[in-house]
Amino acid sequence: MLTSGGDAPGMNACIRSIVLTAAAHQIEVVGFSHGFNGLIEGDYKKLLPYHVQHIIHLGGTLLKSARCPAMHTEEGAKAAAITLRQMQLDALLVIGGDGSFKGALAIAQHYKGQILGLPGTIDNDVDGTDATIGYATAIDTALDAIDKIRDTADAFERIFLVELMGRHSGFIALSAGIASGAEQIICPELGVLKPGELDAVIRPIQNAQVVKGKSSYIIVMAEHCYPGGSTALAADITKAIGIECRACVLGHIQRGGSPVGADRILATKLGAYAVEQLLGGAHLMMAGEVNHQACLYPLQASGEHKKRIDPYLLRWQQQVAND
């Protein structure tokens, strides 16, 4: 098995579950270091139950993670498959997001063993599962920061713009924004903003300041929603309304930290389920959870289209922001 792409809180819990479940079925587990790089280079270690003691609460990943440019080439996929064949491994488990699953699918073209994916990404942008490993923790991390920013925003009567991760997905921004009581949420599902076309953002701020007399105003924004990011948008808002707007970019802090209980449980459940499904012959599938039930979903379909954000919450947020 390997962990690939961006790390997510709960990956260690998933590794632990896989190792313990495999040991119960007398299956040998090999962990490759630094994602697909370790697979291509043959950098691995055998994992036994004692290796995964007391790691369920740790962030990051015991196996380390990394991007792997070589996996974007056929030669890289072939090299990974050669390692699997030479080591006589029967199956490969990949913990990661849609990019990692594309790498797994590329390897499948040159490898006859079983391949299963487990959704490990804070972005929650993988189809076939209600939540991905790390998503719940990322929300809580962002929420804690926004709550603290609210305190200083109230004290100085300022506008704050908080930029969260999510690549091209608004799951974290919408969830953390709603849970924190943010006045506005900007995310890809609501459209990318353009300089000079900020009336939809500025008008609610002016109404809140003048009509409702709010002492603070928080805008939660997903990354990549404005040219130049939140710093540029904060400067343009300040210029447009004459009230200081400060930007705060949380960045990679959202990917670290001890996983919350929900992520530990999900990771444990999916890790055990994946091993059991391998024993049942599953191949080119992803282990996910839908309506609290573990299930399999075609690996190919997990990233075919953009996962839909909750339309009700999106509609509600638009309604109250414009009120």
Automatic annotation (TrEMBL):
Cofactor: Mg(2+)
MF annotations from Gene Ontology: 6-phosphofructokinase activity; AMP binding; ATP binding; fructose-6-phosphate binding; identical protein binding; metal ion binding; monosaccharide binding
Enzyme Commission identifier(s): 2.7.1.11
Domain of life the protein comes from: Bacteria
Keyword match Phosphoprotein: no
Major localisation: cytoplasm
Keyword Iron carried by entry: no
Gene Ontology CC annotation, any one: 6-phosphofructokinase complex
Location(s), subcellular: Cytoplasm
InterPro entries tied to this protein: ATP_PFK (IPR022953), ATP_PFK_prok-type (IPR012003), Phosphofructokinase_CS (IPR015912), Phosphofructokinase_dom (IPR000023), PKF_sf (IPR035966)
Domain Phosphofructokinase stretches: 1-277
One of the GO biological process terms: canonical glycolysis
First-tier enzyme category under EC: transferase
Catalytic activity: beta-D-fructose 6-phosphate + ATP = beta-D-fructose 1,6-bisphosphate + ADP + H(+)
A Pfam short name: PFK
Record's keyword terms, sorted: Allosteric enzyme, ATP-binding, Cytoplasm, Glycolysis, Kinase, Magnesium, Metal-binding, Nucleotide-binding, Transferase
Pathway field: Carbohydrate degradation; glycolysis; D-glyceraldehyde 3-phosphate and glycerone phosphate from D-glucose: step 3/4
Similarity comment text for this entry: Belongs to the phosphofructokinase type A (PFKA) family.
Protein name (database record): 6-phosphofructokinase
Source organism of the structure: Alkalimonas amylolytica
